[in-house]
Structures are given as C-alpha cells and as structure tokens.
C-alpha cells in the first residue's frame, strides 16, 4: 500500500527544490530590440497604406511619417510614428518617460521583399525604466501588424541588464542624457525648437511633435547633412554603416528631442544606438568604429536645433 504521507513529502521536497530553478528560468528570459511583423513580396506603397490603416484600426494615433532615405542600403524606407493612451500614460509615470510615448514602425523595401518592423515594447519599457512593461501596446501591435519573430540581437538581453543598460565601461546609461538647451519656460523652448526645425538649423528638420501632459513635448527629427554638412550626423550615412543585416532596423528612426519643462534633452547616441544594436562590434567592418565621429556630430546638430550653445 502506498504511504500517502511519504509520497506527499516527496512531492513537497521536489517542488521546493525546483523553486530556485523556476526563478532562474524566469530571470534568464531574454529580450531583443525589434519585432518583425511582415516579410515577403509586396507592393511597397500598398504595404505602407495597409500598415497605416491597421494601426488606426487598433486605436493608434498617427503623429507623423517620413521617408528617411531611399536607394542607399535599402531600396525604399518609410517610418510611421504613432502613440496611444497607454503610451501617453506610461510616459507620465516615469522620469524621461516621454521618450517612449511615440512608437516607430518601419516599412522597408529590400530587393523584391518588403519588411515591416517596430521596436519591441517589452524591451524598450525595461531599457527606458518605465513603471509598466507596455504589455497592452505589445498586444495591440501584434494584433494589428503581426509578430513573426524578435530580432536585433543574437542572444538578447535580460530584464536586469536592460534596466541598467550601457554598451561597455565608460559608455552612457539611459539617464545620461544630452542637455541641449534651457529656456525661461516650456512654451519658449517649444517655440524656439519649432522655429529652428522649420529653418533646418544644423541640418535637422521636424518629423513630428507630440505634446504630453505636465509640460512635456517630444519632437521627432530627421538629420540630413546636405552638400556642405557633416555626413557623420546624417541619418542615411549612419544607417548605411550599421544597418547591414538581412532584417532592417529602419524603425530606429527618427531621433527624439525631449522638452521637459523648460529643459531640452536627448538620449546620447552611444546609448541609443547601442540599445537598438547591442551586438554591434566595437571594431571591424560595420562596427561602432565606422561611426566613431557620429555621437559628437549628432549632439552638435541636435544642440543647434534646440537653440543651445
């Protein structure tokens, strides 16, 4: 006859023994920076229109669109920027949360194929230290656009590493922002940036403006060097150097300028680029070495656009 008490004790011991393993498995979960929603033969313009319609049908509000480049490392590229109530609420709950309020969806034509991809909400929520994992945003994007796979890093990063992410020793963290300018008021800051972006100061122009509660405004900006400008700050030049793998990271763009009260800041490129491309090598072909002057050039351009010194 089976000894019930002994059997129960064995099950309890096994369960207790497995608890640390279960915790380790959860802690070891890895996340990657981008989600591939679609990849295959398609008409590019039709796919852009379809993507826009699907986002709207899922309750996203479109705040801007732009074509960062074409005929470079890809045949065509288009980015749609959206937000929704969950993103706006999440932004208001965390310091520097405004950087996460606009969401970017990239549509890219490479040869005979079109790709649709967007930053992984779970990954970004952890890296931007939000007080929510943006599960609702993640689900809404998956329902509207799809989710074939996550990509952008071979092994991915753990939640713990993302919360304190920096590329390597001496590199910037999320809150090591570029302090671009300071004004007497939020309105004065926003008005000055609007004027500078309209004039293309520093080769920087406006893609969108998103006004959030509590005197926070996010500008999405495009950067083009022009004939006499510094190519190291140029969107197309930078991405031509780093966006070399099969699955494209067009949705890295556009870059954000954040007006928080009367202060104007931006994420440091050495953080922002590394976060979106954590496997990028330090040296060699298609490496950070190729774009070594870019962080300083981008800072100079953004500072000019912000009206800073």
TrEMBL record:
Keywords for this protein: Signal
Q: Which InterPro entries match?
A: TT1751-like_sf
From which residue to which does the signal peptide run? 1-27
**Keyword Signal in annotation:** yes
Q: Which domain of life is it from?
A: Bacteria
Under which name does UniProt file this protein? DUF302 domain-containing protein
Q: Which organism is it from?
A: Thiogranum longum
């Amino acid at each position: 006859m089976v000894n019930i008490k002994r059997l129960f004790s064995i099950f309890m011991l096994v369960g207790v023994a497995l608890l640390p393993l279960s915790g380790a498995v959860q802690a070891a979960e890895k996340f990657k920076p981008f989600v591939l929603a679609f990849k295959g033969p398609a008409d590019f313009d039709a796919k852009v229109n379809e993507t826009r319609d699907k986002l709207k049908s899922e309750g996203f509000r479109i705040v801007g669109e732009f074509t960062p480049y074409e005929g470079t490392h890809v045949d065509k590229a288009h980015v749609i920027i959206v937000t929704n109530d969950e993103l706006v609420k999440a932004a208001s709950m965390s310091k520097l949360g405004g950087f996460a309020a606009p969401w970017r969806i990239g549509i890219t034509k490479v040869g005979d194929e079109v790709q649709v991809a967007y930053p992984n909400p779970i990954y970004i929520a952890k890296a931007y230290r939000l007080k929510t994992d943006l599960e609702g945003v993640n689900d809404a994007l998956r329902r509207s656009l799809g989710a074939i796979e996550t990509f952008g890093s071979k092994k991915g990063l753990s939640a713990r590493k993302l919360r304190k992410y920096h590329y390597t020793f001496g590199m910037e963290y999320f809150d090591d922002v570029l302090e671009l300018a300071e004004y007497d008021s939020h309105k004065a800051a926003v008005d000055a940036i609007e004027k500078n972006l309209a004039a293309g100061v520093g080769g920087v122009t406006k893609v969108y403006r998103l006004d959030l509660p509590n005197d926070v405004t996010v500008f999405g900006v495009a950067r083009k060097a022009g004939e006499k400008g510094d190519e190291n700050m140029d969107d197309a030049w930078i991405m031509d150097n780093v966006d070399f793998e099969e699955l494209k990271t067009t949705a890295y763009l556009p870059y954000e300028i954040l007006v928080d009260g009367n202060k104007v800041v931006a994420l440091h490129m050495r953080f922002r680029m590394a976060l979106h491309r954590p496997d990028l090598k330090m040296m060699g072909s298609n490496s950070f070495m190729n774009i070594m002057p870019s962080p300083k050039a981008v800072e100079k351009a953004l500072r000019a656009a912000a009206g800073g010194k």
